[in-house]
Amino acid sequence: MTYQANPKFSIPVTRTAHPKTRPADDSLSFGTVFTDHIFVMDYEEGKGWHDPRIIPYEAFSLDPASSVLHYAQAVFDGLKAFRGKDGEVRLFRPRKHAERLNKSCERLCIPELDVELVLESFRRLVDVDRDWVPSKAGTSLYLRPTVIANENFLGVRPAKAYTYFLILSPVGPYYAEGINPVKILAADEYVRAVPGGLGAAKTAANYAASLYGAEVAKKAGYTQVLWLDGVQHKYLDEVGTMNIMVKIGDEIVTPALNGAILAGVTRDSILTLMRDWGLKVSERAISIDEVIEASKKGTLAEMWGTGTAAVVSPVGELGYKGQKIIINGGKTGELTQKLYDAIVGIQYGQTNDAHGWTEPVVKG
Ligand code: COI
């Protein structure tokens, strides 16, 4: 899919007078370094979204009464741009991310954004900071579009003013483990979301809700939490900040989107690939007891998390109520690796993009 600058939008660009030094690709971890520019746009009741602009990256000034600081009316999304061996910079499924950002806005009572303008913000800012897209295998440019309520008011109701901004960060692996298996602990006490709550939206509050349980798991020697459903503490929900998939026998199971679970773009991409390959894929409720039972029977073949940040993260060990379950001998499974390679191959423009998921960022 190619793209030409959308003439509908006038987006003035003010370039920085003080470009920063770009870190070496080898030194990149996740989310610590930011590029030279930021895209910003404002909303006011009666005026709508206005003044889209690209300006030098700078600190915001927020009034201490700004609503986001008090009631967390905030959403974000996360997607990536990749530099292929051919030098081309490609966004992965940008429209899906822009649409999801709007869904999150709706759930948080944030005024709808023009998806075309959000897409334009991705394309133009990545083009302006194109040199920041790293090229080493496993690195990319992470895009973090965010909307915050920004009205100076302490009453509890949807704000009347908002700021949309997009920042970019050259990134390496999200987990120190990279594609190596992680140890996860099923949380029987803490929950991240409940159906009817915010779990399906990409909103700051969900991540705040996850911190305590994640720290408990870390203290117990685990990398991440396997979240169980918020009502019965019985069914798999998500893992860390990712969707979870389990291969039992020849069936690959992932929890259905039940209102508590984020509709992951990597989740969707992986389900699509597996269906293309003729695999038996089920989106259904799966209990922790079913996983343990499968492990006892020897049919628990593989388990992995899927997300934009890590792509695929294999699970090598699962802890639950004092039990320790080793999956695939603690090694990355064959299907997990195949899925990682397939997604990464498409992202870097090395394999056929049959579904048109990548979009080259055209030089402006
Ligand atoms: C992802 O796995 O893509 C995430 O959502 C992680 C992000 C919150 C850092």
Question: How does this model look, in words?
Answer:
With 364 residues, the protein is an alpha+beta fold. The longest helix has 16 residues, at 204-219. It folds into 2 domains: 25-172 and 353-360, Aminotransferase class 4, branched-chain amino acid transferase, N-terminal domain (D-amino Acid Aminotransferase, Chain A, domain 1); 182-332, Alpha-Beta Barrel (D-amino Acid Aminotransferase, Chain A, domain 2). The chain contains 7 helices and 17 strands. Helices cover 23% and strands 28% of the residues. Helix 2 (94-107) crosses helix 3 (115-128). The strands form 2 sheets. Strands 8, 9, 10, 11, 12, 13, 14, 15 and 16 form a 9-stranded mixed β-sheet that branches. It has helices spanning 68-71, 94-107, 115-128, 204-219, 265-276, 288-297, 334-347; strands spanning 37-44, 48-56, 74-76, 79-83, 89-92, 140-149, 161-171, 182-186, 224-228, 236-239, 243-248, 251-254, 280-283, 300-307, 311-320, 323-326, 358-360. 2-OXO-4-methylpentanoic acid (COI) binds at residues 78, 241-242, 307-310.
**Helical content, roughly?**
10-25%
Backbone shape = globular
Note the gap between the termini.
17 Å
Q: Which stretches of 5+ consecutive residues score pLDDT under 50?
A: none
- Assess the beta-strand content as a share of residues: 25-35%
Instruction: Tell me the total number of β-strands.
Output: 17
Structural class: alpha+beta
CATH superfamily annotation of the largest domain? Aminotransferase class 4, branched-chain amino acid transferase, N-terminal domain
Bound molecules: 2-OXO-4-methylpentanoic acid
Architecture (CATH level 2) name of the largest domain: 2-Layer Sandwich
Number of domains: 2
Top CATH class of the largest domain: Alpha Beta
Radius of gyration: 21 Å
Total helical elements: 7
Strand count, sense and closure of the main sheet?
Answer: 9 strands, mixed
Average predicted local confidence, pLDDT:
95
Under CATH, the topology of the largest domain can be stated as: D-amino Acid Aminotransferase, Chain A, domain 1
What is the string of helix and strand elements? EEHEEEHHEEEHEEEEHEHEEEHE
